[in-house]
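Allow me, if you will, to draw on your knowledge of protein folds for a short while. I have a record of one protein: its chain in single-letter code and its fold written as discrete structure tokens. I remain grateful for any guidance, and I place the record below:
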Amino acid sequence: MGVRCCAVVPGVVRVSADVGELSGLGLLTWVYPPGLVDRVVAACDRAEHRRRLLPARLVVYFVLALALFSPAPYLDVTRHLAEGLRGQGLLGNWHIPAKSSLFRARQRLGPEPLWVLFAATSKPMGTEATPGCFWRGLRLLAVDGTCWNMADSPANEAAFSRPGNGRGSDKSSFPQVRMACLIEVGTHQVLDAELAGCRTGEVTLVGRLPRSCQRGELVLAYREFLGVPLWRVPANRILPVERTLRDGSWISRIHAHTDPAHRDPVTVRVVAYQLHGTGRAGEDYRLVTSLLDARRYPARPLAALYQERWEAEALFAELKTHQRGARIALSSKTPDGVLQQIWAHLLVHHALRELMVRTAATRGPDADRVSFTETLRSARRSVTLTPGSFSPELLVRALVLLQHDLLERLLPARRLRSQPRVVKRKMSNYRLKRAEHHSWPQPTHTGTRAVRIKRPQPTTT
């Protein structure tokens, strides 16, 4: 199988690496070292029982690379993984597998190892010194949801369904997975995620995320997400005043959606406010929180804090527009393949954000000033150029140079700005895809065999 070596990663057991395992994969190896991947594969009982051209460790890195280089096809991604070896003449007898072999290897692996790897590594990264991570001693988190389009296959539609499109009984073009996330605001790190078919509501999925919350954390949420420590409520919700506090807020009681009989009220604090100088003068807002101490958590700073929830939208833009690719549907035609791709995208996003946070920490600026797209390009280069057999010193040196390049391309500080939530084009010039288009007649002849000459009709007088 070519040249063998032994690689040591700090905090990870020594592992035997060879060309077929491609142990040195730049940023991916730094965040997800081979020893950790091997342990996850073994825990999920996905370790191979005989020697393969595509061992399980390599398949994990291959699936991660598919997300990193999205939407590049299978063979192009495999060439990226082998490029460092090719440049140093270390490929030996190993060769790039056929696409069908890569597909079967993904099927053997399944989504579970990617999910376990995510669960093992998705921890908060921010500290008290990280800008935007803490407010008055509380770690800032947010919950929000989004949907992923996937390949239009019968298996995907049966597993995940497809949403309606607002035009009567018609449905959208693609089946969708709904994802709800628990996010660390200051670092854009996804700490937990729930996936389900698009017919499952966001409120249901978000209700499962408190399992990852701890004491000393403040969760920012949209008004529909009842039952989390901080939320904004619709204007027509009655919030009786039990006691007025010195900062203008008041104590009230509400009943969550899980208490339809109204037998178990929750004591909350209400902050009513308007926003001036933002183009929204005269609009009334109300914010409800479980932080009842008005002296420790004053009303005005608390109301201003709510806008930090919109960092979730920036995260989804990073994940789905820049990393996955704008208007790109997940390519897998099986439900397991779709879930595998989503967990891989979350893992790659975690690796990119960890690099951004650590890079910013070396100089002190906000991690928002490190460009996500520049980090994505640099991470791709690190995978392509790093040889498969590496020393820890070489990997650390490559990452230091990568961080230096990112610091030279810092974004300017964010300016005050606001944009309406509108789109330029509501629909395409093409006709709407309907049910009959799913069973469109297929051609049976090609070329000249398909040509039928139509004779001219006699002219009538």
In short: The first strand starts at residue 4 and ends at 7.
